[in-house]
Structure formats: C-alpha cells, structure tokens
C-alpha cells in the first residue's frame, strides 16, 4: 500500500547551508594544539568541502550578530587554500569547491548597483606579493568578471577595490633597474620591485590612472635593508599593501617598508602629505604613536570634517615585520589629522586583551556600518570585533594560539559583510545507512527557512 512520510525540520531563518559540528568556546586544549594545527570538519552531504575550520570562540560572535557574515581565506602550510563564509556561530555558509590557487581578500563589493563576492587567486610564491587574477562572483556564485592589471602587468594580491565611479584599484609589483646610490651611499644600479597601482576600467580593462612609487619616492626612504637587488632577486623597497580613492580624486596608500601612509595627487601622482616614515609631514601630539608604526596594513579614510580641517585615518599596525619589532602586540589605530595645523593624534587604539597577538605580516582593519571595528590578524588565524570605543566584544580563533606565528594557518584579511545568495546548484541529500540518518546541505544558500523532506513509496 502506498504511503507518504513528510518530515519537516524547521530551522532558524537564514540558516547556515552546511550541517556542521558545534564550534569550541575558549577551549584550552584547542589553543594548545592538542586537536591539531588546523581543526577542520567534513560533510557527508558535500564531501568536496574539505577545509572548513572548526572555530574556537574566545568571545562568541553571536554577541556581535548584526546579520552579516565572517569572510576569511584560510591558507598556510597546514591548509588547503579555501574561500570561506561563516555565520556568527562559526557554521560554514559557503566554501568554494573550485580551486583558484592561493586565495586572498574575500569581500563584498558593489558594481553597477549589484553586490559581488570579490577575491584574488593566483601564485603568491614570489615572496610577499603575487601574480594572479581578481574574480567577481554574483549572487548565484557565477563568475561574471576576471580582472587583470592593464598593459600586460601582473595583478598583485594586495589590492582590489571598486570605486564609486565603477573603476577598480589594482596593485602591481614589477621589476625595475634603478639608481640605489641615495640608499647605499655610493654609485650603484640595482633591481627593485617597484610598487605600482592602477585604476582600471572594469569594462575595457584599460588603465585610467597609473602610479609608480619609484617615480615619486626615493628608495632612500625605505626602512628595508638592500637585499640582493639583482634581476633574479629584486629588492622590495616599498611594499605597497593598500590603496583607496577619496571623493577629491586623490589616493591614500600604505607602503609597509616606508612605514608610512601617503596621500597621492590623483592627477600628477605627487605626494601631497605623508603620515609616518622618514618624510613625515605631521607634528605628533601622541608622543610618537600617531606617526610611528611598523609593517602597517589596510589604511583607510574613516571620515573627513573638511570645514574644521579634521580627517581620520585608520590602519592595522602590525608593530613588526620579519626583521624588526616595535611591540609584542599588533593593534588597530584610528588617527586624527588636522590638515590645517598639520598635526596627528591617536584618537583610538584597539587590541585584544585575551592574548598578545603579534602579526609580523598581513592584517586588516575594517569599520562596520554600526561603528564596530574588526581586526584580522593576517599571519595568525584570528579575528576580533570591538565596540566603537574600543571594547573587545567578540573574538574567534581558527588556529591554536600555541601555533600563532608559525604560518601554518593564515588569512590575509578577515572581514564582515552582509551577503544574500541563491546558488544554482541543488541541495544535497545523503542517507547514511550505518547511522540511519539523513544529511543535507546547500552550499552557499543564505535564504533557507526550512527543510521539507518527502518520502513516498
């Protein structure tokens, strides 16, 4: 006799799309590395997802639930590089099953009014930078754009930022033979990695603006020691790692080895002012903390009060690089600039009180729409969220604390964004006869309100 069994599993609105293991909560054994260097889970309904981390929440991100997701790109010596979107419980919402090489900088950006997932994929084995492609996926996870640098140059991993005018800022590292005499003290030619950025038309691929560090900033401003400087092994004198464009058409850039944030004229390429470094333009009202940083990343304008001449700049202060240390902890800095008096003052410094995390490479500083601040620790698999006044609210480790600094689990930037997606794939359903259980998932779906399973005979 035919029969039908209807089983409805009502789950939370906007449920995660992969069934998963519960995250850890301040687990000491996790932090000692007793469960492994990179604790992951697999899914019977989607065995292609192989590198989803099980997070150790030092302070639960459920306390920071604003509807947005955690976006990370785990990579490193213990990791199969994977683009990941997690919800605030640590459950994976989407994990890319397509391989792009090493992956960096997963975020949501808008182009022509439409949201896209953007990221870089390619080869980062060059040493501190890479050559690859910037990808743009739509809300169905379909690849809509592949962005390269113009003029046959290779697109670097550090920067892909879509501007208000619908262009994209792209970073580039390119070999150049130049005069090193101002740095080394005698007449000498040598090869450098010149730091370049282009503003690229997304439809034509042509550069509408290009800036080259070596044309405007002398190599003598670099704090990095000259190493090799041969064509086979160029010297990385500048190390550009962030670029932003403001409403005046000028650019704010960060160069790690200049230890400076620099404001560039959008027409001439000239340096308008520099915060930090050898050619610092500002009088420091914070006993040196506003103009002295080391290995910094991810600088942004927070806001401008042009009527009163006040400007706020944010950045991730690594407080170290591969050869130098300024502190035992990386921090986020918010710096107030008075462009009339040319003064700089730290208005906010945020850091984790849970543990002293020093990231000598990579890192991110993000200001959320609600004013909260998200730090990503780059070299170390961790991210923290702070209140507008700097109180730690939420913190997640996807690497044991004991393994910090090892390079085993890294994620260049760790960010938060709202994201709505409707994958074209079908939900996956697997029945495990041994366990007599059904396992279901829908990788990337954000709008699942309920599972309805129907079996008939």
Going by helix content, strand content and strand pairing, the class is mainly beta
Determine the fraction of residues in helical runs and give it as a percent range: under 10%
**Strand content bin:** 35-45%
List the strand order in the largest sheet.
2-5-29-28-27-26
Output the radius of gyration. 23 Å
> Could you list the spans in which at least 5 consecutive residues all have pLDDT below 50?
1-16
Q: What is the residue-mean pLDDT, rounded to a whole number?
A: 93
Number of strands: 33
User: How can the largest sheet be summarized?
Assistant: 6 strands, mixed
Q: Enumerate how many helices there are, as a single number.
A: 3
Distance between the termini: 8 Å
Q: Which word captures the global form?
A: globular
What would you note in describing this structure?
- With 457 residues, the protein is mainly beta.
- The chain is built from three helices and 33 strands.
- It has a six-stranded mixed sheet with strand order 2-5-29-28-27-26, with no helix packed on it.
- Strand 13 and strand 14 (167-179) form a beta hairpin.
- The model is unreliable at 1-16 (pLDDT under 50).
């Amino acid at each position: 006799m035919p029969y039908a069994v209807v089983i409805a599993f009502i789950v939370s609105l906007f449920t995660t799309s992969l069934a998963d293991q519960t995250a850890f909560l301040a687990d000491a054994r996790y932090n000692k590395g007793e469960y492994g260097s990179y604790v992951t889970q697999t899914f019977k309904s989607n065995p292609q997802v192989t590198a989803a981390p099980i997070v150790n929440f030092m302070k639960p991100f459920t306390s920071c639930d604003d509807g947005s997701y955690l976006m990370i790109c785990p990579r490193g010596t213990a990791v199969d590089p994977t683009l990941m979107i997690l919800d605030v419980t640590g459950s994976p919402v989407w994990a890319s099953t397509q391989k792009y090489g090493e992956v960096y900088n997963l975020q949501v950006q808008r182009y022509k009014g439409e949201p896209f997932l953007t990221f870089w994929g390619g080869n980062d084995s060059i040493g501190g930078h890479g050559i690859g492609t910037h990808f743009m996926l739509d809300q169905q996870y379909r690849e809509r754009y592949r962005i390269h640098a113009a003029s046959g140059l290779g697109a670097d991993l550090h920067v892909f930022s879509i501007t208000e005018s619908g262009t994209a800022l792209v970073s580039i590292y390119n070999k150049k033979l130049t005069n090193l005499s101002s740095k080394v003290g005698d007449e000498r030619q040598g090869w450098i990695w010149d730091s370049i950025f282009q503003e690229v038309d997304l439809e034509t691929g042509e550069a509408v603006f290009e800036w080259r560090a070596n044309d405007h900033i002398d190599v003598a401003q670099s704090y990095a020691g000259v190493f090799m400087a041969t064509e086979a092994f160029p010297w990385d004198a500048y190390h550009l790692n962030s670029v932003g464009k403001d409403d005046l058409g000028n650019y704010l850039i960060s160069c790690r080895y200049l230890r400076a944030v620099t404001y560039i004229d959008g027409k001439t390429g000239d340096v308008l002012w520099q915060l930090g470094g050898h050619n610092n333009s500002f009088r420091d009202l914070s006993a040196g903390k506003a103009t002295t940083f080391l290995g910094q990343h991810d600088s942004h304008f927070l806001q401008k009060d042009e009527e009163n001449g006040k400007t706020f700049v944010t950045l991730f202060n690594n407080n170290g690089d591969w050869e130098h240390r300024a502190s035992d902890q990386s921090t986020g800095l918010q710096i107030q600039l008075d462009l009339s008096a040319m003064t700089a003052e730290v208005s906010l410094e945020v850091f984790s009180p849970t543990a002293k995390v020093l990231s000598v490479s990579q890192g991110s500083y993000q200001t959320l729409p609600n004013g909260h601040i998200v730090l990503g620790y780059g070299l170390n698999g961790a991210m923290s969220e702070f209140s507008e006044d700097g109180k730690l609210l939420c913190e997640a480790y996807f690497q044991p604390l004991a393994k910090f600094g090892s390079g085993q689990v890294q994620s260049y930037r760790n960010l938060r964004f709202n994201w709505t997606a409707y994958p074209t794939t079908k939900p996956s359903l697997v029945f495990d006869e041994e366990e007599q259980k059904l396992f279901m998932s829908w990788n990337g779906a954000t709008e699942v309100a309920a599972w309805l399973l129907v079996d008939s005979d």
